[in-house]
Amino acid sequence: MKKTGTVCNVLMFLFIVCILTGCWDKEELEDKAYVIGLGIDHSNHKGKIKVTMLLANPEVGSMQGGGGSIEKPREIITFDANDFIAAKGTANAIISRSISYELLKIFIVSEEYAKDKNFMTIFSAVVKDKEIRMDSYLAISKENASEYFLKNRPKMETRPHKYFQYMVNHGIENGLIPDSTLFRFYTTLERGTDLFLAMYTSAEKDKNPKVHSEDEYMAGQVNATGELDDTQFIGSAVFRNGVMIGKLNGQETRTVNILDDTTNIKDILIDLPDPFSNKQKQLAARVLKTNSNKVKMNMKGARLKIDITIPVKIEIMSNPSMVNYAKKRNQQIVKRQIANHIKKVNERLFKKTQTKLKGAPFPLSMYARRYFGTIQEFKKFNWRKSYLDADIRVHPSIEIIDYGKQAKTLKR
Length: 412
Hints:
Layout: H1 2-20, E1 32-42, E2 49-56, E3 74-81, H2 87-91, E4 98-100, E5 106-110, H3 111-114, H4 119-123, E6 137-141, H5 145-151, H6 160-173, H7 182-191, E7 196-202, E8 232-240, E9 243-248, H8 250-259, E10 267-273, E11 282-288, E12 294-298, E13 305-316, H9 328-357, H10 365-369, H11 375-381, H12 383-388, E14 391-402
């Protein structure tokens, strides 16, 4: 009996192993059409939205596809739908392969639709689709998303997923766009006390744009010429309670990113006013943020007082006035000038957020919560109203770690 039971157990084990090692449920890469970018616009039909899908061909540029493939690297389709979840089924009436959101990297929403009070009714579906990852990005386009994808034709990147990956990552690293993942968007929305910044983009250049400082642009305003794609990522769209209410340019967005310790900004290049020049010359500098900001709040009294200390290290990269920085006096002058400039830029930003945007553009309320024992006490404090009247003072803590190479004074 024991021998018969042992044989039965062995046979059962082999049967189970055979089932587990089967490939009956396998899915081939080329069987799916992967949506890399998803666009959302207003529709001319009531109760509908216009959905645009940027589909990537996984075989183009891969070893499997080969170098001589004549297949297109991407395909774009636009149609009306009730929502972008069920739209996958409609798309399969046009696309032969099964539509998948597994590799979806970016949502492009037109500025017009982002300002619609019904935007969140449609966009809330992202948390219900298991294929959509919360590390996907939300971006706002100046034009319709359908036009944006058609005009977006990168010259150097054949594969669309690589293009968006590079553009977004580099933009976040240098601070010109915010880190606007879906996770951040919904976290801010649930918190309900602060504003959310989404990256701003455009594939349509302004006609006769004005020339500004290197970071004072919005997407579409940089007047670049040559053999290049017109798509630009710079600046941010400001959201309150899931609806777009305004915009920040590249400099303002970068300032917010330095204030926000939850971002990945660490090393950026900026232009600063040269204190030794009367001709409005600018000196290039590298700003390194290696330590967190220090935020102190005084809740006593009729007006909230906030003091923010921003520790940054500076490397001076250029010297247009040919000043000798070996002299201590010159070092003190340039250090004081940089501190005043950073203070001025930050205070101008806070004034705009208090008077026009009516909220903090980063999770400043999280610092305020520490001063209260319970959630009820914090709610009673009414952070939103208190922030609008708050006395906010910024204290840059500047350490210049490199004054650059000191060249001999040129003879004139």
